Amino acid sequence: MIKNHPVLGESTLTEVQHPLLESIGDVSSVLTSLRTERLFLVLDETAYEASGAKDVLEPFLKQKAVERFTDFELNPKLEDVQRGIEVYRGSEPDFVIALGGGTAIDLAKLIGSLAVQPESARDIAIGNASIQFDGKPMLAIPTTAGTGSEATHFAVVYVEGKKYSVAHPSLLPDYAVVDPKLTESLPGRITAATGLDAFCQAIESIWAVAATDESILYATEAARLAFENLVSATNVPTTEARRAMCRASHLAGKAINITKTTAPHALSYALTSRYGVPHGMAVAVTLAPMFAFNASVTDKDCSDPRGALAVRDRIARILDILGTDNVDDACSSISNLLSRVGCPTLEEIDVQGDLMSIVDSVNVQRLANNPRRASREQLLEILQHTGP
Ligand SMILES: [Zn+2]
């Protein structure tokens, strides 16, 4: 069994996950041992059925009082959280289960926590109030190999099209099942988009200002696994490739749980909310030009207090993962990976007339975690240099 190591690196992080469950078949025995009776489920219904989880869980769930929340769209929105909170409060559960991709898991984190706070969900989502009380224990069951949300203490929520991230140690799910079998029925496009998210999260975590020795270990293995297996998992999925992507996704989640993400994520949110580009692809389109940009960091524009040399050490680590010692070749490898899994270029997304407004919508906290400071003009230039 893979041990889910305690989260280190930030003194405020005290929550620790139980050992990772590697089979959906283990869920009933864990829930029985916890004596849970009233369950609140946040379910992506399509994934529940297609992943095979429904067949395994339903016989057990029939013996319990179960409330299901399934009425939500892709990418968590405040309205979905608010509707979920009403259902949650009506059911008084003693345990929360999330099943699906990052949306279902982030929603379950937010509903389970915000339902027990005195402040409104809206105020907490936009950062005007904070989480004070822990929610009920939660189990996350990812059915995509991507966001790693089951391993993080934060959750994304869109409020009027603007992206916010709610962070609190108690949002880290207490239990997680990472079972590659659940991803076997994933269509190629979802495998690609979610796998690209894992790959980008891992690469960004390596160069992040907040990187620690521990996060770099998780992120390095995640990036290597994703780089070597994503094309196969997308185009000719084998059991091994699926398994490797599940591990990559979970480790990338553990890495960003410590570091959070950087510039490619900061630039991605407008592409998702305005153009409907899947999150992982929206992030991936700026990864190669941002890699080239960060590789040229100097002490003058370095935002990592450890200095440019320390950042370039981590850039060298990424070059090693990509199997080269040359930044141009590394950028070509990244672009090649993107095109082989069907990720569109910015040109294909057709945002050329809107680049400045994408720069203006950038998430400043994520940008501050990028190892090289970037001006608006430099970000614009990076957006202009995405492409094959
Ligand atoms: Zn992401």
Overall geometric form: globular
What's the count of strands? 7
Helical element count? 18
The level-1 CATH class of the largest domain: Mainly Alpha
What structural category arises from helix and sheet content? alpha/beta
| CATH homology-level superfamily of the largest domain | Dehydroquinate synthase-like - alpha domain
Any chance you could write out the topology, listing elements then pairs?
Layout: H1 27-33, E1 38-43, H2 45-50, H3 53-61, E2 65-69, H4 78-91, E3 95-100, H5 102-114, H6 121-125, E4 138-142, E5 154-159, E6 162-167, E7 175-176, H7 188-207, H8 213-235, H9 239-259, H10 263-275, H11 279-284, H12 287-295, H13 308-321, H14 327-340, H15 346-349, H16 355-360, H17 364-368, H18 376-384
Parallel strand pairs: 1-2, 1-3, 3-4, 4-7
Antiparallel strand pairs: 5-6
Helix pairs in contact: 4-5, 7-8, 7-9, 8-9, 12-14
The chain binds zinc ion (ZN).
